Amino acid sequence: MMWRFGLVESTFAPMLTSHWALAAVLCLPLLFGALAAIFPPKRMWPVALACVPILVAGLYLLIDTLQADLLRWQWEFSGVSIAFRLNGLSILLLLLTQWLGAAAALYTPGLLRISEPERFARWLWPLIGTVISALSLAWLATDLLTLYIALEMMGLAAVAMLLLSGKVAALQAGMRYLLLTLVGSLAYLLGVALVVGYWGQLDLAGLAQVMEPGPVAWMAAALMGAGLALKAALFPLHGWLSPVHASAWTPVSALHAGLVVKASLFVLLQLWSLLLPDTFWAPRLIAWMGMLAIVWGGLIAWRAESLKTLVASSTVAQLGYLMVVFPLLIGPDISPLARALAWEGFWLQLMGHALAKAAMFMAAGNLILATGETTLKGLAGTSRRLPLSLLVFGVASVTLMGLPPSAGFTAKWLLLHAMVVSQQWLAVAALLVGTLLTAAYIFRFFRYSFMETAPRQRYQPLAPGMDMIALCLALAAFVLGLLAHFPLELLQGGSA
Amino acid sequence: MNAAWLPLTAIAASLLAAVIIFTLPEDARRLRTSINLLAAVIKITLVALMVGRVVQGDEAIFSFQIVGNIDFVLRADALGVMFAGLSSVLWLCTTVYAIGYLEGTANRKRFFGFFSLCVASTLGIALAGNLFTFLIFYEMLTLSTYPLVVHSGTDKALKAGRVYLRYTLTAGVVLLFGVVLLYSFTGEHSFASERGLGDYLGDHRALLTFIFALLVGGFAVKAAMVPLHGWLPRAMVAPAPVSALLHAVAVVKAGAFGILRIIYDLYGIELSVELGVTTALAVAACITIIYGSLRAIAQQELKPRLAFSTISQVSYIVLGVSLFGPFGTIGALAHLLHQGLMKVTLFFCAGIYAEELGIHCIDEMNGAGKRMPLTSLAFTIGALGMIGLPPVAGFITKWYLGIGAIQAEMYWVVAVLVASSTLNAIYFLPIVHRLWFRVGPAHGHGTWPNEQRLGRLETHGWLLWPAVFTAFISLAAGLLAGLPFSPLDWATRVAVGEYLQ
């Protein structure tokens, strides 16, 4: 598993321009975010202009990674060495972060223009910048401390973003989130302390060499796992997720559900494949929780009264799909074919879900913004008045349901194949039942939207581009599904 | 030369039409109409080109890699082109009809957008070169027909939509499971494979049978085989062009076509017979045929009667497939086309009666032949064809199916055919009798439920001509069955190809 995460030595020294690109990727979001706090952009074009250098730097790193398979930077500061690595997986996640972040940022000016002006609205910009920088750092980091810093930055910025909307409900949910994310960090930190105290290593690659399985490793893995599962809203630690999204601003929700919870999951998988490479029960425990998550999340979404709760609860169920894959990624006696398929399916599902969920939050936000209604019943009859927003919602939901031609479907195909090969029939059933449950709650909303008898609502025209950004994200999930070959080849790169 | 662009552009034509229609404003009626018709004509031309290539023994193939060993393959083989031809010709007719039918109603943009998507998926199903591609378009079809079924937005329509999704999405999941199982164990899912699955017979007999049951079970929902037919009569709340499309071209046929592909191009006929699955399928088909006809007799309204008739008629295709031998195959394939033509005619006419005269129930149809002679003539041709009377196309099918049954030494099938024809006559002839030989409002007795003068002719021309045209073709397909490119001729070509392999 170590090589899959790119935690090996690279013989290839990065070029000087790569250093600059790396610096741009990590620092520019922060810089532009701070700039935007001082001069809040009112239109889309300044935001677009700011996104360009960051995206270009990301693409430059992509080209570099394609050539070298694995990039590795290393610095020594007074005896402490810090290293970053960029392999196929981390560059994919980095690009995903950047493009999703750009979409969320582009969406924001229109939103702020239409909704009532808020005192704290300008502080949204540096927070978005912080979250993107922190996420980029999380994909790149190779030691426990940097990971901790990235997670902490990300978590605190996310809490602040959620508090910004200033409503009482948002404050309540935000404070609860703050409390839980701090508890999660604390558990993680305890795990780190245990590891450092016992093996004296922070560096993941170094740790992998000296680490031996035993009670200490289990203890550390359990502590870190619990903390990260709390941050990633893995079932049954998902209770804080829906209230947080119910009152948050749309781009914040898009970023949070699309990327922030995924980062904790990424770290969790990485640490466990390091600390518990051959454990039988731990990944199975996660998988069972995942099965429950699929059913439970689907049921809550099915019973949901408000659209945002529906979308947020669906995240719980979709994370369940990822949890179910754990026994195919970590553990003894997994056939190489199953492991390779599960590895590809896992990340494809994660990326497809990130794109689709962000698109769905935006579409839901557009519907709510345009009508002023938040409940499913209140949104009845939107099909005639807001066809485009509804279409975006539909396209995004195809990915969530895992129907073709979306990334969700291709991922589900890969995962099902892996599960059939390794004869995990319970997991197969969970995935298939999940499809039906997802369809049930998605079409419950559509049924309302097709009603023709609904009263005419207050109608607020949206800013230009707000639907289009969401549509692009939703269609990107389709393209990802049909051309899955290219990203997946990157994932398997560096296998030599 | 390999013309990869042909199948791709044929699908892209309707996909693009859908995208353009979605971006047009709701009131751009004229532009939308032209785009619809233009796309339909382009598609027919492209399919005609593909037919030409198949005649020359050259299949146009388009493919690209999705992931690992899974490719997205479009392949214009004889069987696929046959279904593609049916869907593209009937799409044009149905589009013309729908334009007339929906004139002045709301949400036409949404309707025509999803209508085009629906046809694009049907064409994709026809041309799919492997199960994975087939699955992509099959699910696309499910999703794109949902907005059409619930188009009117009434409570009843929304309920029908819910039932439709329950059936089809569950079937989709079962199908997906079957396909993944098959692919995981054999690595095989291409329709063009020469080897077939025969190699696995020795070790995996039970597994192969199980997978067959999953796949055919998944397809049987769309093909509306008893007891998986519940969604079809409920979906009758949809507008008439949708019913016509669902029944004659898209959904029901997609299911039947899937069964064809599984038996002919994936398992192979010999293997299917060896596994003994064809006999089971034949029994299921016969039960469906009889059950559908019996239920049809009990219906008092026109559209539900036609719906149960579809349930019965589509299973003729399945029955023909499950008879081992070339004649059964020819009958099945020809019926795929014949039934589409005849059923679309019947639904067009039912829609015309409902729009022009407000007729929904069968006992309101007295004397309609005098008021609307052309529509009633078209209806009569369709009905006679369904019963299987010469010279309409339906006769050819039943003839070939009968011969196939005798050759396969399954004499009970002949009895089923005879019984079914009798039942068909019992539920269609009274309608024909009412149309022509009963005295009704046209003769001064009583009034029509809701009469509207829609056009200078007996009804609006956009409604009338498609119905007359399809009725004419179903007559011609029977009369001129011996000519090249007739449905029978093409079915024979496909069957010969299958059996000579």
UniProtKB/TrEMBL annotation, chain A:
Q: Does the keyword Cell membrane apply?
A: yes
Family matches, as InterPro entries: CPA3_Na-H_Antiporter_D, NADH_UbQ_OxRdtase, ND/Mrp_TM
A GO molecular-function descriptor: NADH dehydrogenase (ubiquinone) activity
TM segment ranges: 20-38, 45-63, 83-108, 120-141, 147-165, 177-199, 219-241, 253-275, 281-302, 309-330, 350-369, 390-413, 425-446, 467-488
**A single BP term in Gene Ontology:** ATP synthesis coupled electron transport
Where does the protein end up?
A: Cell membrane; Membrane
Topology in membrane: Multi-pass membrane protein
- The protein's superkingdom reads Bacteria
Please tell me one Gene Ontology term that the record gives under cellular component: plasma membrane
Q: Which family does it belong to?
A: Belongs to the CPA3 antiporters (TC 2.A.63) subunit D family.
- What is the name of this protein? NADH-ubiquinone oxidoreductase
Organism in which the protein naturally occurs? Vreelandella populi
TrEMBL record, chain B:
Membrane topology type: Multi-pass membrane protein
> Which keywords, in A-to-Z order, does the entry hold?
Cell membrane, Membrane, Transmembrane, Transmembrane helix
A GO term from the CC aspect: plasma membrane
Q: Does the keyword Protein biosynthesis apply?
A: no
- Report the subcellular localization: Cell membrane; Membrane
Q: Which domain of life is it from?
A: Bacteria
Pfam families registered for this protein in UniProt: Proton_antipo_M (PF00361)
Ranges annotated as spanning the membrane: 6-25, 37-55, 78-99, 111-138, 164-185, 206-232, 244-263, 275-294, 314-337, 374-397, 409-429, 462-483
- The principal localisation class reads membrane
* NADH:quinone oxidoreductase/Mrp antiporter transmembrane domain location: 128-421
Record's keyword annotation contains Membrane = yes
Similarity comment: family membership: Belongs to the CPA3 antiporters (TC 2.A.63) subunit D family.
Please state what the protein is called.
Monovalent cation/H+ antiporter subunit D family protein
Q: Which organism is it from?
A: Vreelandella populi
